[in-house]
Structures are given as structure tokens and as C-alpha cells.
Amino acid sequence: MPIAPMPLPEHPLRLSLNDELHARPPVTLAGAAWITHLVMLHDRPEGRISAAAEESHLKVLCDLSQSPFGSQIHGNHWILEAQGLRLKWERHNEFSSYTFFRERKPGHGPRTNALEAFPREWVMDIPGHLLVASHVEYCTREQRDPEALAAELAAASETTVVSHIAGGSVLVASDFRLHDGFTHFTLVDDNPQNHHAGGTVQRLLEIETYRMMALLSFPVAREVGQRLGRDEQEAAELMEEMAADRGPEGERAILARLTRLAADIELSVSRTAFRFGAAEAYYALVRQRITDLREQRIDGLPTLQAFMDRRLAPAIQTCLSTARRQNELSSRIARNSALLRTRVEMELERQNQQLLSQMNRRAKLQLRLQETVEGLSVVAITYYASQLVHYLAEGGHSLLPAGWSPEGITAAAIPIIGGLVAWSLHRMRKGLKDQH
Questions:
Q1: Does residue 23 contact residue 73 with C-beta atoms inside 8 Å?
Q2: pLDDT at residue 344 tops 80
Q3: Are 160 and 74 in contact (CB under 8 A)?
Q4: Long-range contact pairs involving 400-407 (C-beta distance under 8 Å, separation at least 24)
Q5: From residue 415, how far is each of 335, 384, 394 by CA, in Å?
Q6: Of 4, 74, 132, 239, which residue is the least packed, with the fewest Cβ within 10 Å?
Q7: What DSSP state is assigned to residue 325?
Q8: pLDDT at res. 100
């Protein structure tokens, strides 16, 4: 009896988060097979390849093979099976992978591959830029002798990697070189009924995919490294100039150059941070997949782990060290800019203090001049007021008591007028001071 769902409100992402644990399962291999793996980058000069464009292209293959277009799993995983062929499509953030499977049949030669069984025109029109192309031959001990294969590959190339994986039951061999545009892997399985063969093949293809994706940052690191050398030299020269006393104008010029250099470094960091971060993440996936293969060494032959440590690890370390150099240079320039900015601000503060002192001296001089002018004003006002008194006294001479003359009245009025004027100006200055 089916159990009824719980009558509780669900989080909108509950189903997708649970299904993420089961996303991109390996394809089960029923026996020997030819496998071809293509990885197409989404970014192109004319624009980014959309999921809709890839879906439309996959529908064209369904029409050509007269097969129904199956449903996609969360829009990033799809499998087609038709006429003994199988195609697994996966869409990732930066790339999409197309893995073609073809059953191995009697009569197939050593140069057979899975891709040739699919329509050539359709393959040529796959959207994106090709980054990874690998042919995989998965066979049994009866079909390929592992000892003879190891000896053959070792004689043909000095970079041949041969080891046992999957607990020793599968032999893997490759030279990681391009032959006709493809890298080649050969897997010889001791157990023709190996139910984990699909997972083993998927891990091997993921190692090749993530190896190339990680290496995308290496050209960026070399370009940035050359520019970093020049920037570090310029930063060192600016630090030497900072140590010397260049004066306010010189320090402001150095600060302007530091600010421009900091802007250039920050622009470079923003442009490369994702690429360097992705390289570190992809490299971690490569190492994890190699660990998952449970590799065992064959005497006298390098393993996948040893090959990646010797060939891939130095490139990734170059990328990571370049990223660290960028961040350290950015931090160093920021600290030096802050120090120099503080020195410039202190110099400006000192100049402002000098300017305020000069303004204070000028204000005092103006105050003294104003007081002098006010003293003269008292004299001038007293003079004119006394003249008015003199004119009034003369005009009313006949009304004055005996013995009073206009000159005497004017003389007596002068100190009184002067006192009143001085007292009025004092009250006016005090009133203005109280307002401030």
C-alpha cells in the first residue's frame, strides 16, 4: 500500500536538492565497448552557447535516428539509446560533455571508435568550442593482452602511463598525446561482467576533462605573471621614492601613481579570480578521481598519480602562486597607499594649521586697526558734534545767561560728547560680541 505524502509545506528546492545526490550517474556497460568523449566550451566570440541551442541540436539527432527525445533531468543530463548506440549529454557551468558509446563487435579493427557510428554532419555542428576529445577502448583480456599492450605503448612513447585500477581488476594505458586530434585510453578488464565498469570509465573521462579545464588558467597565469613582474618592479621603485623626502608635491605625485597601479592590479584580480579559483577546484577534482580509481603501480611504468604530479601539478602551482602574487601585491600597494595618504593628509593638516595661524594674526591686526579707526571715529564725531553745539550757542547767544559765551559752552560740551560717543561704540561692540 503506497504511503501518502506528508501534509507538510515543502521547501521549493527539496526535490532538486535530494536528486542532486543521484545526478549524472555512470552509464552501465554490458560488455566491451568503444567510447568517445567530447567536451565543448560554452563561450564563443559571438556569444555564450545556451542550453536551448544544445537541446535543439540533440533533437536533430533524435530525428535522424528516429528516436523520441527523452526528458532531461533538471535540464543538465540526458541520454539517448538507439540501434546499439548511446549518447550521454551533460551540461556544466562552463562546458557540456558528449559521451558516445558503441558496442564492440567482432570485426572491429584497432582504430574503431564510437564517434564514427554517429552522423558526421551532426557531430560537426555540435555547439561550442572543442576542448577535450578522447577515444576509449574498453575490452577484456581475451580481446587485448594487457602485457603485450603495456610493452607496445612503452616502446612507442616515453610518456606512457600504465597501471592497474579498480582494485587491480582493470588495466589502463594512455600516453596523453593527441593522435588525429584525440587522446586515447585503453582499458583491459579481467572481469567481463564488471558492473562497475561504467563508473570506472566515467572517472577516467572526468580526469581528462578536469585536467584540461584546470589547464585553461595556465596561459592566463603566464600572461599575468609577465605583467606582475613589471608591476612589482614599479611598486618597488615607488616605495624607494616614498622613503626619500620628495616634499608635498612629490608625495602627491607618488600617491597618484600608486592609485593608478592599484586600479590596474584590482582590474587584473577581478578578471582572473574566477579562472584561478576554477583551476584550483578542477585540480582538486582530478586528484579526487585518481584516488577513487584505487590505482596500483606496475613495476617500471608510471601511474596516473605520478604522471599528474609531475606534469599537471607544476602548472597548477604556477596558477595558484600567480593568484597569490596578485593578491599580495594588491594588499602591499593598498598598505603603502594608505601610509602615503596619511603622510599627505598630515602635510595638508600642517598647512591648514599654518593658514589658520596666519588668518588669526591677520584678524588680530584687523582688530587693532579697527580699534584705531574707532578711536579716530570718536574724535571725528566729537569734533562735528561740538561744531553743532557751537553753532547752536552762537545762534542763541542772546538767550544765554550773562558771562556765557559760545566758545565756553562748546568747550564744556566736548568731553561730554566724547564720553557719550565712546560709551555708545563700546555698547555696540559688546552687543555684536554677545551675538557671536
A1: yes
A2: no
A3: no
A4: none
A5: 72, 13, 19
A6: 4
A7: H
A8: 95
Q: Which three cell numbers stand for residue 81?
A: 539509446
Q: Is the pLDDT of residue 235 over 80?
A: yes
**Cα–Cα distance, 86 to 83 (Å, whole number):** 8
Q: Please check whether residue 40 is in contact with residue 131, taking contact to mean a CB–CB distance below 8 angstroms.
A: yes
Tell me the pLDDT of the chain averaged across its residues: 84
- What cell does 98 get? 558528449
Strand partners, 95: 41
Q: Is the dihedral of CA 385, 387, 392, 393 positive or negative?
A: positive
Residues facing residue 47 across a β-bridge: 44
Q: Is 354 exposed, middle or buried (0-12, 13-18, 19+ CB in 10 A)?
A: exposed
* Grid cell for residue 237: 621603485
State the DSSP string of 233-273: HHHHHHHHHHHS--HHHHHHHHHHHHHHHHHHHHHHHHHHH
d(CA 422, CA 436): 22
**How wide is the angle at C-alpha 333 spanned by C-alphas 329 and 335, nearest 5°?**
120
CA-to-CA separations, 198 to 24, 195, 311, in angstroms, rounded: 12, 7, 27
pLDDT of residue 224: 93
Q: Grid coordinates standing for 265? A: 592590479
With CA atoms as reference, report the closest residue to 275 among 223, 204, 208: 223
